[in-house]
Specification:
Blueprint (H helix, E strand, L loop, with lengths): L4 E5 L4 H13 L4 E6 L17 E5 L5 H11 L3 E4 L6 H6 L1 H23 E3 L2 E2 L8 E6 L23 H20 L3 E6 L1 E3 L8 H10 L4 E4 L5 E6 H14 L5 E4 L4 E3 H15 L10 E4 L14 H7 L7 H17 L1
Parallel strand pairs: 1-2, 1-4, 2-3, 4-7, 7-8, 8-12, 9-11, 10-14
Antiparallel strand pairs: 5-6, 11-13
Helix pairs in contact: 1-7, 2-4, 4-5, 6-8, 6-10, 8-10
């Protein structure tokens, strides 16, 4: 395996930290530079790597001069770009920071990579001829589905929130660098992730934390909004496949084949907690419906046949097995 120096942005976050653990263990010849701004969504306890194959660098992708210094210092051969503002509610309250980070930050990063790896458009420097930029995105760029149908790689972009609009913009920037400059890019759009190390603000950690603390569990609207749930470690395996074997310039959708309504998720988590942490009344009694989110997309669902057929990816965890692992991990976090 050729030695690589991977710049992984957002590596102290939920998916990024899980991926660093995964790729660090699997590819012994790789060096990893974890670039993270350490915003509220990051957690330095997510990673405990000590040897010289791993380096943490605090910094902001909105600072292009800083990015240039990182590429030069560490001789970055590849980028896997997780860093993003990602909470929809926060994007509604403060959309500007989402445009600054997700759009301009991505543009700064890929422009820095292009200048460092290429002599001119469509001509790589010899040392970086195999360098690749892998952009991590979301199915939310495609908008919302009705009760039937699935997102595919050919779906139109119809984002409905400042967050998804900013991610859609970043996706299109990546596409343009392939077609305008010949940069070796791939993009993956994933469904809702769940699992260990997710930030407390997200749905599943909120359900678990509130239930354990005997607080109301807030569910938007009528709880019938549908998401396709992907276990984070399955997502890491899919990223690995696309990064190493995906076709340059292509987009791959990654789903978990686990469509669940929000109320189904809440009830499932509460049932597990009733078994593992029983109390006099079911944890379900804490479920409380709250005012719906503005512009709340009804349903996301992914047709993952392309990554299945082209790269032989299939999720290993069912929702039932993955959610049990997840609840057990959070019980240890919140009660340990």
């Amino acid at each position: 395996m050729k030695k690589k120096t991977l710049l992984i942005t957002g590596g102290m976050g939920f998916i990024g930290s899980n991926f660093i653990d995964y790729i660090y263990d699997k590819y012994q010849s790789y060096s990893i530079v974890n670039l993270d701004a350490l915003t509220y969504a990051a957690d330095t306890s997510n990673l405990n790597l000590k040897d010289d194959r791993y380096t943490f660098v605090k910094g902001d992708i909105r600072n292009k001069m800083f990015l240039e210094s990182v590429f030069e210092k560490y001789k970055v051969t590849d980028v896997i770009h997780f860093a993003a503002e990602s909470h929809v509610d926060n994007s509604i309250a403060n959309p500007i920071i989402f445009a600054e980070t997700n759009v301009m930050g991505t543009l700064n990063l890929i422009e820095t990579a292009r200048n460092f790896w290429q002599e001119k458009p469509f001509k790589y420097k010899e040392k970086y001829k195999d360098s690749r930029f892998h952009h991590i995105s979301t199915d939310e760029v495609f908008g919302t589905l009705e009760e039937n149908g699935f997102f595919t790689e050919e779906s139109n972009y119809l984002p409905n929130s400042p967050y998804s609009s900013s991610k859609a913009s970043s996706d299109l920037i990546i596409r343009s660098y392939k077609h305008t400059y010949g940069l070796n890019t791939v993009t993956t759009n994933c469904s809702n992730n769940y699992g260990e190390k997710q930030h407390d603000e997200k749905l599943i950690p909120t359900i678990i934390r509130n239930a354990l603390n005997n607080k109301e569990i807030p569910i938007y609207g009528n709880g019938r909004n549908v998401r396709d749930w992907l276990y984070v470690k399955d997502h890491c395996k899919a990223i690995d496949l696309v990064f190493h074997n995906g076709k340059s310039g292509d987009v791959y959708l990654i789903g978990g084949n686990n469509e669940k309504t929000n109320i189904e998720v809440a009830n499932t988590v509460c049932s597990i907690l009733d078994r593992l942490m029983p109390k006099q009344t079911s944890h379900r009694s804490l479920i409380h419906y709250v005012e719906d989110r503005h512009g709340h997309d009804f349903r996301y669902a992914i047709d993952n046949s392309k990554i299945r057929d082209k790269l032989s990816f299939m999720p290993e965890e069912t929702f039932e097995t993955g959610i049990l692992r997840t609840v057990e991990w959070y019980i240890e976090k919140y009660k340990g």
